[in-house]
């Protein structure tokens, strides 16, 4: 598409470097010009160290997710966030193992990530955060209307990019876009393929700002079984491999 600037948005890598690599390669083939990352680089997956370095090297914007905060700040297991319906023992074992895999440089990098980033591209205002700007644990679906109103009042933007739920979605409201990019490394919507979004901006002409010309979600195939085997070989809980295989 002539005159278009493509922004790729990914979130929730969760230590799955192979999935992120597949997403970045697919984006290159599709002509993605820039990447934004909505956090949660680590935990659950077998290659958190590589995932951290790959994400910060590839994305112009990376914000802090709740797992990044917990790992980077060495949060006690008893204080970690455990989503409803998840096995606390599995979550805590994954956190414990992940903490052993990162260097102090990487921990410092995670600690230094912002909770929200605002950027302007071609006159279009982007706000990037993990779940909401005021909480990295709150699920967007628990208060959609209230969250949308609060974002409009406290954080004016044209495109809001986030993740955390591991389920892709998009809402349009009075010209604003609320984009949940889903999960790159651990989808939970029943489709195990890595997910990311592409926001295409029309380039400005004659001094006028650009606009969102198109938005789409992309699913990517990769060697999922090799990641599942790696999870087991590294002694992580079997449930992580099983959930990865079915997108749960």
Structure description:
- This protein has 248 residues and is α/β, with parallel strands linked by helices.
- It has one domain (4-210, 218-246): Metallo-dependent phosphatases (Purple Acid Phosphatase, chain A, domain 2, 4-Layer Sandwich), CATH 3.60.21.10.
- The protein has eight helices and ten strands.
- The protein has helices at residues 17-29, 48-58, 66-72, 88-99, 104-111, 144-154, 224-233, 238-246, and strands at 4-10, 34-37, 61-62, 116-121, 124-129, 159-162, 169-173, 176-180, 195-202, 211-219.
- The strands form two sheets. The protein has a five-stranded mixed β-sheet with strand order 3-2-1-9-10, with helices on one face.
- Helix 3 (66-72) packs across helix 5.
- The protein is globular and about 55 Å long.
- The protein starts with a strand and ends with a helix.
- The mean pLDDT is 94.
What is the number of helices?
8
Largest sheet: 5 strands, mixed
- The CATH topology: Purple Acid Phosphatase, chain A, domain 2
Helix content: 25-40%
Our measurement of the CA-to-CA distance between the termini, rounded to an integer number of angstroms, reads 35 Å
Radius of gyration: 17 Å
The name of the CATH superfamily reads Metallo-dependent phosphatases
List the uncertain runs: none
Strand content: 15-25%
By secondary-structure content and strand pairing, the structural class works out as: alpha/beta
CATH class: Alpha Beta
How many domains, in number, for the residues?
A: 1
What is the spatial order of strands in the main beta sheet?
3-2-1-9-10
Mean pLDDT: 94
**Do you know the CATH architecture?**
4-Layer Sandwich
Secondary structure: number of strands: 10
Overall morphology = globular
Quaternary structure annotation:
single chain
Order of helices and strands: EHEHEHHHEEHEEEEEHH
